[in-house]
């Protein structure tokens, strides 16, 4: 993993940062990413999956506005994910629900173009996010949440090495129904082992 493009900062200064790995670069989200994100989200049309909360092409500008407003409020650090092999933006991800008192963050509101699935880009993005959270911000834990019905997302989170904390029944309204939310986390003591697993996965992809 390439070191993040930032000096170490205390948790109180959690904010936008550019993170560069072997397969992807996570860039602070801006309106300049709009057209590339529209192209990426049309790859797979994942907004049509009822158990996801992926923006539509038409709703991308509003989603960028929403994420930037949360960043301004201090509760989110949003990124656009750019694949290094061809320079294309392939999706979005965030640090969210930031609790500076612990400190603790959630990694979420993530989606990627369907064609990026299985290419190692998601693992590299998670390696960058987790590494920055634990090694630069010094968080105690990183949380992940997903819909109980989203088996693909649950499997991906479990492959990271995150442990399931529990299920929040009827916790959030999504697409006209109230979902059960599965909560996972990685705590600081587990990060070295999780990092080794992610580095191995990314390294295999980077060699291809």
TrEMBL record:
Pfam family, one: Acetyltransf_3
Gene Ontology terms for molecular function: acyltransferase activity, transferring groups other than amino-acyl groups
Keyword Transferase assigned: yes
Keyword match 4Fe-4S: no
Gene3D superfamilies linked: 3.40.630.30
Entries under SUPFAM superfamilies matching the protein: Acyl-CoA N-acyltransferases (Nat)
Keyword annotations from UniProtKB, A to Z: Transferase
PANTHER family: BLL6696 PROTEIN, N-ACETYLTRANSFERASE DOMAIN-CONTAINING PROTEIN
Protein name, per record: RimJ/RimL family protein N-acetyltransferase
Organism: Micrococcus flavus
């Amino acid at each position: 993993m390439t070191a993040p493009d930032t000096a170490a900062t205390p948790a109180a200064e959690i904010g936008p940062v550019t993170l560069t790995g072997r397969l992807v670069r996570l860039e602070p989200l801006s309106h300049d990413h709009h057209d590339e994100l529209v192209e990426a989200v049309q790859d797979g049309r994942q907004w049509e999956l009822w158990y996801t909360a992926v923006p539509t092409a038409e709703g991308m500008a509003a989603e960028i506005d929403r994420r930037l407003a949360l960043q301004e409020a201090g509760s989110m650090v949003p990124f656009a994910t750019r694949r290094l092999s061809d320079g294309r933006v392939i999706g979005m991800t965030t640090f969210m629900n930031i609790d500076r008192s612990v400190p603790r963050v959630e990694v979420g509101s993530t989606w990627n173009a369907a064609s990026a699935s299985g290419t190692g880009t998601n693992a590299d993005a998670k390696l960058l996010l987790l590494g920055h959270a634990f090694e630069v911000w010094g968080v105690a834990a990183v949380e992940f949440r997903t819909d109980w019905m989203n088996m693909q997302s649950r499997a991906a989170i479990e492959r990271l090495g995150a442990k399931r904390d529990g299920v929040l029944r009827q916790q959030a309204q999504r697409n006209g129904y109230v979902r059960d939310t599965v909560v996972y986390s990685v705590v600081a003591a587990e990060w070295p082992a999780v990092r080794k697993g992610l580095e191995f996965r990314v390294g295999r992809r980077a060699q291809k």
